[in-house]
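2.7 Reproducibility. Because tokenized structures are sensitive to small changes in the input, we list the exact sequence used for Pilus assembly protein, including any N-terminal residues retained from the expression construct. No trimming or masking was applied before prediction.
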Amino acid sequence: MSLPRLDFSTLSHNAAKWPLPGRVLLGCALAGLVLLVGEVLHLGPSRERLHGVVVQEQALQQQLAEKTGLAASLEARTDQLRVMEGKVAGLLQSLPGESEVPALLEDIARLAVANGVWVEGITVLDEAPRQLYIEQPMQIGATGAYHDLATFVGALGGLLRVITVQDVALRPEGALMRLDMLAKTYRSTMPSGKALQALEPGPQLGYEPFGYEPSSLRDPFQPLALQVARVPGRPGLAPDLTRPRGLLEGMAIDQFVMVGTLFRGVQAFALLRAGSRVHRLAVGDYLGPDHGQVTAIQDGYIELVELFPDEQGAWLERPRTLVLNVNS
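Resulting structure tokens (single pass, no recycling of outputs):
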């Protein structure tokens, strides 16, 4: 069985004789076919290009809004840049043009003596050149009481030259603390007075120096029962920093226990035990890292006065009492 062949001429001739609804349907079908072909061949690609242009327009509008905001804040950003340049210039002005290691070592030694800290060694390491300055690192090892070491490190930051402290390691060493740290000082890469030729000089930077005040703080490395109150002191005379330090001045007063008194004629001596050794002290002898000096010896206690610096560099007196330990 074979299908009859479709004859379009006959179909179109007979279509004129179709009823009106059939001709309407045929016309709608032909119109839909034309629209479909036009959509596929012409309107589709044009619509895709239109969508791409709309996306590009939105991106350009966003860029325009951002650049408009930048243009509006250009004056404020210019002022901010000038302030930053002034700060950089101020920092560079604070750097010495030449190496000042000898003077710095003297300042470190002076601060150590003033705060009752024993500096066991300072190793000057090789310089490290940077873009605008040169780093001079130094490895410092010191021994002392916790609060004295903290005061010493704080005093380093108060020096006129710029010093930073890094890699701080703190560990107990007997009754004292051992501090190892890397301190860095800086100097300009150009001679003094020529470091700022590329920058317009700006205002010197001011800052509030931090003063470590341990009067109301406790030593975190000592039990609460052994804490000694550090009462505020009264103005006193500066100690003789050139005086040779005695052996007992390298030990914290907390290490000593009063075990008795000894009288030889009218002169009285205090017997203090530190570890397994007993030491004999008279009025005027020194004890502890804070320039403590014995002022009175009684049967049940001894009195001494310590000296310590305040934030302004003046010296204050702090009285202290050691009471006889009847159980020793």
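Confidence is low (pLDDT under 50) at residues 193-206, 225-232.
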